[in-house]
Amino acid sequence: MTDTSQHDSWASGDSYDAYIGRWSRQIAPLFVEWVGVGPGLRWLDIGCGTGALSQAIIENCDPANLIGVEPAESFREQARAVISDPRARFEAGDAAALPLDDSSRDVAVSGLVLNFVPDREKAIAEMKRVTAAGGRIAFYVWDYPGGGLELLRAFWSAATALDPAAEALTESRRFSYCEPESLIGLARSGGLSELVVKAIEVPCVFRDFDDYWRPFTLGTGPAPGYYQSLPQEGRDALRAKLKSNLPRGGDGSIPMKARAWAVRGRA
């Protein structure tokens, strides 16, 4: 049996930002605007990573305070380096066992995390537990099954053409539940009410092929992990196939899009 999580390495905050974080930073402000709450609230960012969503909260929502929970120390360090606002603090913790008291937050959010949590139902239950009654709970994940993260769709299309076994490792196969009906069902099973789902889409424009390609060589994330697992000839073949397949603008840029599904509800 293939271990589909074998390349899920999230060791480097810098590598993550070059790979996915820069696109998450574009989604995050649109997401927090859509969450639709007022100022002066106690926020929780679960799986805060390098701080993309936390930064959007601080800059756009005027929170009373913000706690970011993240298991990876290098990611927490990066978030602290990016966000110096004294209202924000970043703690070690697991989405399925949050280190917070019951009903201690007014808003609990999570960005690009729940699909990597083994027990998603427990994570939703934890979000509800730490959120005060009537408080807002919201999250977003990439539209993997719909090919919404076009930079990954292009990578895996090339990879599976060269290596059919790579199909089992693709996020579209592994995270097929990252679509509206399943996400609403997950939130409803966790006891959330007033549920709404929305697509949020932003452009992903790479300056040139190297801007697109380099993050895949850094080893952080499933696709870069797969690339690192290949022998040199396999790496060269994959790079060449992508270089010939990708769309190009008149200036040599590579225009793509990134789409996420966002869900919001109440505790």
In short:
This protein has 267 residues and is of the alpha/beta class. The protein contains 10 helices and 7 strands. The longest helix has 23 residues.
Strand content: 15-25%
- Tell me the major beta sheet: 7 strands, mixed
In what order do the strands lie side by side in the largest sheet? 3-2-1-4-5-7-6
Radius of gyration: 18 Å
Q: Determine the fraction of residues in helical runs and give it as a percent range.
A: 40-55%
N/C terminus separation: 39 Å
The helix count comes to: 10
How many domains? The number is 1
- The rough form would be described as globular
The number of distinct β-strands equals 7
In CATH, the homologous superfamily goes by the name: Vaccinia Virus protein VP39
- The assigned CATH architecture is 3-Layer(aba) Sandwich
**SSE pattern, N- to C-terminal:** HEHEHEEHEHHHEHHHE
Determine the mean pLDDT.
Answer: 93
- Which class of secondary structure composition applies to the elements? alpha/beta
Low-pLDDT runs: none
Pick out its properties.
267 residues; 10 helices; 40% helix; Rossmann fold; 7 strands
Give an overview in words.
The protein has 267 residues and is of the alpha/beta class. The chain has a single domain, classed as Rossmann fold (3-Layer(aba) Sandwich). Helix content is 40%, strand content 22%. The chain is built from ten helices and seven strands. Strand 1, helix 2 and strand 2 form a beta-alpha-beta unit. Helix 1 runs parallel beside helix 2 and helix 5 crosses helix 10. The radius of gyration is 18 Å and the shape is globular. It starts with 12 loop residues before the first helix and ends with a strand.
